[in-house]
Design goal:
single chain, alpha/beta, D-Maltodextrin-Binding Protein, domain 2, 3 domains, five-stranded mixed β-sheet, 9 helices, 13 strands, 25% strand
Length: 281
Amino acid sequence: MKVKGGIPSNVTMQIKALEEELDVRLFDRLGKQLVLTTAGKRFLTHVQDILNKLNEARSVVHDNEILSGTLTISANEVVCAYRLPDVFKLFRSRYPGVRLIFRSVPNQQLKQTLFEGTSDVVFILDEPIRSTGLAVEPLTEETFRFFAAPVHPLAKQTVLQLEDFHGEVFLINEKGCPYRTMFDRAFKKGDIDNISSLEFQSAEAVKQCAISGIGIAFLPEIVTEAEVELGELVALPLRIPDLHVYTQMSWHKDKWLSPIILSFIEAAREVKAIEEENKIV
């Protein structure tokens, strides 16, 4: 956080008084800019949490039926694009007075936002999470497959083994992403070499490059449903064994679950139930 330009003298005095009271420097004065120190960033996180709780407490005091306040949700791009829109729609239809903030966060950083207090609820795409500090609720199991353009030589095969991928180009997420780790683990276990890869930060970029015939994509089925139906991509007949990945909803165990947070969690559960009913039908 940076503050540019001249700072009113009364604000400067208040900052100085706060720093003296806390006995720590919250800002570095860099010319005409104020930049938060490490201590200042930590302090700001707690201040934001207090303000959010104050808003939530006000909404409870004034009216238990009409919720208002702020709710911060974080997820990676895949979950946001393909799992959360229906949840957001349901929640907004019931509680239009709530300010809903969504933050796109890389999958591997989502848990940290809960410990830092910058997210109220996060949605993580990963193998089952075990944590002593977090409450974790699996919502949907996600199936990962290999996808290629219909013209790819392997797209015509009815049976494939890992050995058939020698010399192929894979389109995958960059290192650090959980499902990139799963991909690397599978090929290392299969002792497969002589493959190359292109790394991306975006699942959408991986998909579009696969459609263009650049290589083989490793993605959740939900990302490619429309393209497979249109015939732009083909799911290759190979699955990684013992791969169990879920979209998981999580929050900090010590966090007070306000009416707003509880209502959002319930909306996510309802959408999950509807999706399961549709699968059965």
